[in-house]
Amino acid sequence: MLYRTAGQFKTSYAADHALFPVRQDAILLGVVLVFAFVVFPLTASEFAFRALLIPVLIYALAALGLNILTGYAGQLSLGTGAFMGVGAYACYKLITLFPEMNIVVAIALSGFFSASVGALFGLPSLRIKGFYLAIATLAAQFFLVWLFQKWAWLYNYSASGAIHVPNISMFGITVAGPRAAAITQYYFVLGIVCVVTFFAINITRGRVGRMWKAVRDMDIAAELVGINLMRAKLTAFFVSSYIVGISGALFVFLWRGAAEANLFDIPLSFRVLFIAIIGGLGSILGNYLGAILIVALPVIISGVPAMLGIRVASATVEHLNVMIIGALIITFLIVEPHGLARFWAVIREKLILWPFPH
Amino acid sequence: MNQRPDHMMLTARDDGIAKGDVLLEARNISLAFGGVKALTEISLNILKGEIRAIIGPNGAGKTSMLNVINGFYTPQQGSIVFRGRERRAMKPHHAVGQGIARTFQNVALFKGMSTLDNIMAGRSVMMKRHIGWQMLWHGPALKEEIAHREKVEEIIDFLEIQHIRHTPVGKLPYGLQKRVELGRALAMEPSLLLLDEPMAGMNLEEKEDMSRFIIDVNQQRGTTIALIEHDMGVVMDLSDRVAVLDYGKKIADGTPDAVKNDQGVIDAYLGVPR
């Protein structure tokens, strides 16, 4: 009853191309944004910021980057973690070499480093595809993590081999480093994530997005409608790695505070890939849903026994957690192999007709 | 079907070639895959404004011929002259730039995309706004998108597929998929349209519809068409000239009537009419 499209007529193509052709979607997004910008900051605790909200946003951004490559352009990649690392190390070098540089500029620039590296490792995609390409990107993963360990210049020759985020302020407010307040960092991340998501939506629904999807669905036909495959694939690698790089910079600067090379190892790549797959390949919304499931749910579940006043050993909680999340993932994938985003799409279709079945 | 719109703004691009002159000429094309000779010294031309059919038994090299014409295969011997320019090797996306579009024997649509997006994808080459504008969406990118959308809507009107505009093509029945594929080819505003078995696997009604579309494209838009088809009734009715291939060689070429009565063609392909 609430979700009706009847009576919403479109009188121009511009209206049909609007971000939300259905009015209720716009209202729903408005509600979500109010929660994100007003309600959460007012109510969340320091713990909620650091363990739930910030990581969900950052992981969603990383998954968004991967989704552009895998979900939209159809190129499988297992190098996400390493590309995040490139972004993080590039940002670290920029900040330490040019301390007066604005952090937003540094993060935006560091994306270009990972984008270039991504496009470079995307070159094999011109000849190979599918699982073989995945193996080729795996080479990037191993090579880059090795480079992060061995190239001491990257971590400024620190004895531990780790990078530590200094205190960085912007307009007099500390946004990164040990002294930064969680709420500032949250707003900072949220702002960047919103802007990047907005850009990503526009790219994926326009000409470039159509080219990517054409390459994904049938590359021979794409070539014969005049799409330059090389260009389409390399732009996909570039844009994807750019977003992944930014998320890597945020990952270290706004969340972890410090990082070693092995943080960007293959488990991180898999984690981001899981988020993208469970959320839904070829969807923007899916990345957020996937990140909430993979990142936030474990934290919430492990807090449940304490809330109920049941005393359970923390090791048991951890084990239960893994089991519950694993079972949920399998269930979701059986019920809806196309991910949580498709789940939502089906609900929408049903809601439009509800309460009449046909 | 009698109220067909004839106000099409989309016409074949002006390529400076008068109707009836040679638009494309294949000279002595030979193509081999290892030891298999797919095409042997085939010469044929396509005149501006005509419907040209290529027929022959399975494996005769018809599709290979189309693939040579649009640059997907490079022949070992011979050359293609299109719009007065000679070439041997070229990338398919350049062929599109020059005005050659095609459809496929087995539907080759982008299955995950809607009908509208599929046809819009056909106009990718003509859309120029770079990724910076695309990111912002509003402004020049939106203007370009809408300008092309209007052209695409004309094609959708023309092919009578308004009702499936937003449906993912993977969910459409076969006949409609074929129609969408024709739409995608038309969106490229080709001067030469290659149709590889546009009516394969269709029922009579769908064949009639498709024939109607092909004739309309040819007559209203002046698009030159080369088609491969196995339905002889359709081929003989539609086409102006027919080339017959057998085992990679051209065995006959001429008007439908001449080809129909050619003894070589009857032996190789058509059989004896009852």
Automatic annotation (TrEMBL), chain A:
A family per Pfam: BPD_transp_2
Topology relative to the membrane: Multi-pass membrane protein
Keyword terms of this UniProt record: Cell membrane, Membrane, Transmembrane, Transmembrane helix
Residue ranges crossing the lipid bilayer per the database entry: 26-43, 49-69, 76-95, 101-123, 130-148, 186-203, 234-255, 261-281, 288-310, 322-345
Keyword field contains Acetylation: no
CDD domains found in the cross-reference section: TM_PBP1_LivM_like (cd06581)
Cellular compartments annotated: Cell membrane
Name this protein carries in UniProt: Branched-chain amino acid ABC transporter permease
Native source species: Chelativorans salis
TrEMBL record, chain B:
Pfam family, one: ABC_tran
SUPFAM superfamilies (alphabetical): P-loop containing nucleoside triphosphate hydrolases (SSF52540)
Domain of life per record: Bacteria
InterPro entries xrefs: AAA+_ATPase, ABC_AA/LPS_Transport, ABC_transporter-like_ATP-bd, BCA_ABC_TP_C, P-loop_NTPase
GO molecular function: ATP binding
Domain ABC transporter: 24-272
PROSITE patterns for this protein: ABC_TRANSPORTER_2
Keywords: ATP-binding, Nucleotide-binding, Transport
Coiled-coil ranges per UniProt: none
Keyword Disulfide bond: no
Designated name of the protein: ABC transporter ATP-binding protein
Species annotation: Chelativorans salis
